[in-house]
Design goal:
Elements (H helix, E strand, L loop, with lengths): L2 E6 L4 H18 L3 H4 L11 E6 L2 E10 L4 E9 L8 H15 L4 E7 L3 H9 L3 E3 L11 E7 L1
Parallel strand pairs: 4-5
Antiparallel strand pairs: 1-2, 2-3, 3-4, 5-7, 6-7
Amino acid sequence: MPIQILRCTTGEPRFQALVRELDMDLTARYGAVQELYSPHNTVAEIETAVLALEEGTPVGCGCFKLHGPETIELKRMFVRREVRGRRIGQQLVHALEEWARELGHAAVVLETGNLQHEAIALYTRCGYQSTPCFPPYDQLPASVCMRKPL
């Protein structure tokens, strides 16, 4: 089935539903440690979000926010477990990178967790490289930060 990538905002109810699934997944992986990260995962009112739809059903999401004058930060990247392995995450990353380029941004940073091996593999495939963790993640125990020039 072809995947449709739809630009939206983080206020989109389907985006919010996927983020709730993401939060459940992260809590299952990290337990109480996830509570340290929750305050940094809010994405209210972000205009640069995308949904991956398969036959109209949301199967993945992501967004970005400004991180610096020419840099954006990927946030809330998620693909439902039952459709993983089909390169939907890669499509989401590429769509967000394309949008960032359109807006004139020069680089992307992101934070993921050290237990999210599939996410680290995805970002590596997409050309991201490890970088020292940036605040607030430099003070949090499970963080892996990555960067890519656009």
